[in-house]
Amino acid sequence: xxxxxxxxLDLKTxxxxxxLLTTAIVLFLRHSGLFLSVTLLVVAPVVVLVxxxxxGALHDGPNAHPSSAASLVSAMFVAFVVPALVTGLxxxxxxxxxxxxxxxxxxxxxxxxxxxxxxxxxxxxxxIGVGIGFILLVVPGIWLLVRWYFAAQSAVLNGTxxxxxxxxxxxxxxxxxWTTLLALIAAGVTFGVVGALCRLAAGTVDDGVLYxxxxxxxxxxxxxxxxxxxxxxxxxxxxxxxxxxxxARSG
Length: 251
What we know:
mainly alpha, 11 helices
């Protein structure tokens, strides 16, 4: 499928936090088939094969007791592989929408494919740096979490390597750290809390297959909305940075 044309999504005008949340939800609902499809391609294998089959959730549902190895592999995928892939796919799709083109699933996969190693490398460096920061004094971890939040988007959309992507994210956040933190908190409360409540509700299901199915869909929806918000925030930050640079040159 080659996608379709529609009026371009405005990615050059900065959006406030409320507008970012609204736009992310509206985009997801309008193109739910596309966003859920690309996200499920990443999430479903991890949840079904690792958590479900290996971890025992398909048989025991929420009462499963996965082995240490299964838990470690699941955590590694959730920490490094899944965020890079989902963020990269959503970043490519939103960029195309900014040009008035809605790509198909296959097209999005082909476009993001060459940038996935760099995005994963950026996510690995980001996670290690934030982890060390939290181990030290917590505050450095929070500072780096916000400072490097746009590393994956930078790797995919700017074509930079892992280290350069961290630097690009830091430059984007420079002077707007608190604003970025507030936006991320808003997204975390809106999507994270709702997702957590849905997972708690799914935990009341005894049937293992149904439980894993619900868990897969809930995680996919939550991740997709978060990736959409993060990508829209990236474009807003870039638009604001461009406006500031233009003002500085004119002054």
